[in-house]
Amino acid sequence: MPTFIWEARTKAGEMRSGSSPAETQNALVERLIAQGMTVTKVKKKPTEFVMPTIGSGVSLRDMVVFSRTFSTMIDAGLPIVQCLEMLANQSENLRFRRVLASVKLEVESGKSLSESLATHPRVFDGLFTNLVAAGEAGGILDVIFRRLSTYLEKAAKLRRQVRGALIYPSVILVVGVLVVMVMITKVLPVFEKMFKDLGAGSLPAPTRFVLAISHGVTDHMFIVTGVGVAIVVLFTLALRTDRGRYALDTVLLRMPVLGPVMRKIAVARFTRTLGTLLSSGVAILDGLEIVAKTSGNRVVARAIMYARMKISEGKDIATPLLETGVFPPMVVQMIGVGEQTGAMDEMLQKIADFYEDEVDTAVAAMTALLEPIMLVFLGGVVGGMLIAMYMPIFEVAGNIK
Question: 5: closest CA among 13, 14, 16?
Fold first, then answer.
């Protein structure tokens, strides 16, 4: 849908301008006239080059700024359409600007704000739209957007913690693989040529083993590369299935060093999201369904849906959560206390605050522990290959002596 830049005068004589998407220029003019404006200028907006984006193309920072600014505007008494127009014009993200302009158009056509936001599910997920719907129903839209901005800020912090937990071992692993490949393809053939020049006889078993690996890789490089690419492609395709993602999430939660950190991150995300939903007036069953969809972990999502099923049958929330074995007993007990006292949303927020601090400590401890482990592992592999190469040299030197 093309976008048009327009200027118009209101009934009070004020000049206004903006950009709005419309099917045709006449359709936009008719819409502005219906709003009581006298159109003075309309022209089609020039086409801008947009880089292809992965995902929604809208960052968490964009969403935080949007939510906090929208809350301030609504609290000041500005109409929703005018808020959307102002935010669309001032957004630095071209993709987000177009989304907000489209949402504004939907609201002008008679839809509610939550329905208009739901037409862009890649930008506004179920959590966002359901909270906005609750805010519209309760007349507390400014409060809801303030809570959303706080929640998104916490979510951004948690995402940084997840990256911090995964990026270090990933980088060390990649560097280790590259070093080993260089050793196998470039260094070991030089040693093998030197052994032949020195007239070394029968080589030690470790040397023969390492040279066999080198020959296997260098002589069949295309096959090795093809197998590596096939493994990556198959792994990626497997992650797109529920089964494959569930298996990966299970492994991540059970890993010796990384597992406890991922579990704490899952608990922090679950309690923060559910607490935000409940404090905004969303029903517990609807809240659990939304949390399961936005949990980011299939194991946790399945446990939440199991708890939701049991709650719908009349049970409390603590018992089924404990039965899943995913959530720590202390967390379940605190949730149970919050349910009994009628302050579960506050209890969930306190648990989230505690576990977010725990994640900070756990990530720092994990990085400190993984650093020597990965270095020892990498040093052992490279050192073992070098020792295997130097063993024949020592034997030849002994024979010459």
Answer: 16
pLDDT of residue 21: 65
Cα–Cα distances (Å) from 333 to 109, 301, 307, 321, 330, in that order, read 48, 20, 15, 10, 5
Concatenated DSSP letters of 82-94: HHHHHHHHH-S-H
Distance CA 249, CA 236 (A): 14
Question: In the structure, what pLDDT confidence band is assigned to residue 397 with cuts at 50, 70 and 90?
Answer: low
Tell me which long-range contacts 77-82 makes (C-beta under 8 A, separation of at least 24).
80/107, 80/113, 81/107, 81/108
3-state SS class at 286: helix
The model carries a pTM of 0.64
From the candidate CATH numbers 3.90.70, 3.90.930, 3.40.109, 3.10.20, the one assigned to the domain spanning 1-46: 3.10.20
Residue 29 backbone dihedrals phi, psi, to 5 degrees: -60, -45
Residue 175 has pLDDT above 70, yes or no: yes
For domain 56-124, give the CATH number.
Answer: 1.20.81.30
- Which ranges in the chain are annotated with CATH 1.20.81.30? 56-124, 152-401
Most confident range (mean pLDDT) of 143-157, 197-211, 301-315 is: 301-315
